[in-house]
Amino acid sequence: MPLDEEPEIPFFEVHEIVVPHLGHVPIVKGDFTGLPKKIQQFIAFYADYMKPRGIFICDGSDEEAHMVINKLLERGTLHHLPKYEENYICSTDPQDVARVEGKTFICTKNKHTSVARSRAGAKGGLGLWLSPEEAKKEMDERWPGCMAGRMMYVLPFCMGPLGSPLSKYGIQLTDSNYVLLCMRIMTRMSSQVFNLIGEGDFVKCVHTMGCPRPWRKKVVNHWPCNPEKVLILHFPEEHKVKSFGSGYGGNSLLGKKCFALRIASNLARDEGWMAEHMLIMGVTNPAGKERFIAAAFPSACGKTNLAMLKPSLPGWKVRVVGDDIAWMRFNDKGELYGINPESGFFGVAPGTNWKTNPNAMASFQKNSIFTNVARTADGGYFWEGMEDEVDKDIEITTWLGQPWKIGMPGKAAHPNSRFTAPASQCPIIHPRWEDPEGVPIHALLFGGRRPEGVPLVIESRSWEHGVMLGASLKSETTAAAEFKGKSIMHDPMAMRPFMGYNFGHYLQHWLDFNKPPNKMPKIYHVNWFRVGKDGRFLWPGFGENIRVIDWICRRLDGEDIAVDSAVGMLPKKGSIDLTGIEDKVNWDEMFTLPKDYWQSDIRETIEFLDTEVGDDLPPRLRQELNEQEERIKKM
Ligand code: OXD
Ligand code: MN
Q1: What is the residue-wise DSSP string for 30-59?
Q2: How far is the CA of 324 from the centre of ligand 2 (A)?
Q3: Where does the pLDDT of residue 552 fall: very low under 50, low under 70, confident under 90, or very high at 90 and above?
Q4: Pair 479, 369 in one domain
Q5: How many whole angstroms from 419 Cα to the centroid of ligand 1?
Q6: In terms of domains, do 358 and 483 share one?
Q7: To which protein family does this belong (predicted)?
Q8: Which residues are catalytic?
């Protein structure tokens, strides 16, 4: 007896449109024969391979989304949150709650196209490679017939504004209608994309939950998945992604990490641009001068909060272009321009509230999907961090479906629970966020959670020194991936989980941009998370971060407010505006550079890069590391 007792509810009477080379797979929605031939071939090939019971060609319309939502409500996968307009909640199988980095591979003919020539002892943390032969073996075990008894949805999507020269197209095949709904928020999904692709290139994305019918395992939370067999494969040479067994975020919304970072970084290397794990924000000072900043932070370090920062200093305005990914290119005049390839926010819910991020909160009051958060009895969402914003006695249902109240042990929401919200609903979305040309990028930031030793802000001495600061990025581990416990982990350029090719070549690609006519943006390292002797954060963070941005903007204007140090330029004492928070901030503690700490830190970083990147580490970068080490010795 199959344990998946949830037969698919048909959408409509299935019209037997039998397409010759598709055999008897019915098209339940969409005009297959009207699609460009190349797209027909792609769909036909995978329909034959995965054997779905029908094909549903999406057009991205509201009508279509409602049809799918109603079906998922009926089944119990989604629940409506009546407190808001068109907000829905769902819980996954508890075995499917995060990206699975250990099962994520890049497949290229030559191993060292994908991963650096690391030395003995390397942990292979900068991307995993699988040979095409092994990949084929793994695929043969999983994919044939993997959609049996399920619907195959065809999602045409565009990363970046429709029609922008910086945008790229993709088509995702999936048997998850949750993925369909989220991709509709996170990407520009529209039937127009089929015509825009025509017979041209597109990224082929193939996703399955990996549970063909009859499915003999127990389905938890109406979320069939196959955790033992999860596999996420990238084929940059073929512009293809194949993902098996998981419906969670980065594993399944293939436009995001798989395409917009891993595949796109390959395209970027070949075409001379950059695909980065960066937010883009526009900041306007009280005099009305606007600057755009792109900032890279490892997962769950507050990128979304920074992108939507509510400035505590009067007269400042912040507007968000993107909160996770930036595609950037130098134009003919050597100016760097960037777009946000996504159209939604897939943000970490816990910690988000009307105080820490009112703009994110406002973004998901309607048309949003919440995954693995808790529910309140009055039809709202709840997660850790919202305690002061709901009635203290309200009955809560945890993400695992248990009754719960504030103050009880355990957690209401999963630490990696998420909101998926349309970016257009953000009250501070930048009017140019969909500008096909992108926005000019004036500064790049790197940052991580560094409880010890690392000052609030460091300005790089040069482009190359900045690349070195980015390559040395580390942070405390988070819940966004499968890691357990807290430790400081390397996350160079905040790209460790998202590297699409040899990290040494990637660093060289960055170094190579510094040539005429390019005007190089200044690079900064920031750390909001330094902890004092009393165990408390030394910096209040959130809206107060504008004070650091103010300092950065004044530096961009050429103000003489920095002093040299062994690790880069630091703010001159008192040059960050602390009006109103003077008594909360201990400047000396926040900026002190403990020599022992920095000596062991640079040794450890050099050891890490030498081991992991080995002979592929660009000599120029090694030189920067050596020079930094020498300066630290002399501190
Ligand atoms: C994300 C991540 O989900 O970085 O954005 O993990
Ligand atoms: Mn991210």
Answers
A1: S-GGGS-HHHHHHHHHHHHHH-BSEEEE--
A2: 5
A3: very high
A4: no
A5: 12
A6: no
A7: Belongs to the phosphoenolpyruvate carboxykinase [GTP] family.
A8: 301
pLDDT band of residue 486 (cuts 50, 70, 90) is low
Residue 6 lies in a domain: no
pLDDT tens for each residue of 102-150: 999 999 999 999 999 999 888 888 999 999 999 999 999 999 999 999 9
Q: Which of 252, 271, 290 is a domain's end point?
A: 271
Burial degree of 475 (CB within 10 A; 0-12, 13-18, 19+) = buried
Look at the chain and report how many structural domains it folds into. 3
The number of the ligand 1 atom at minimal distance from the alpha carbon of 481 is 6
Long-range contacts of 122-125 (CB under 8 A, 24+ apart): 122/611, 122/612, 122/614, 123/612, 124/612, 125/490, 125/496, 125/612
Q: Is 324 near ligand 1, meaning CB less than 6 Å away? A: yes
For residue range 254-299, list pLDDT tens digits in order.
999 999 999 999 999 999 999 999 999 999 999 999 999 999 999 8
- Residue 207 token pair: 């996703």
Residue 298 Cβ inside 6 Å of ligand 1? The answer reads no
What CATH number is attached to the domain comprising 590?
3.90.228.20
Do 104 and 221 reside in the same domain of the chain? yes
Range of the domain at 417: 345-423
Contacts of residue 205, Cβ cutoff 8 Å, sequence gap at least 6: 170, 171, 172, 173, 240, 241, 243, 254, 255, 258, 259
Same domain for 438 and 339:
yes
**Residue 248 to residues 51, 208, 213, 230: CA-CA distances in angstroms?**
23, 11, 21, 11
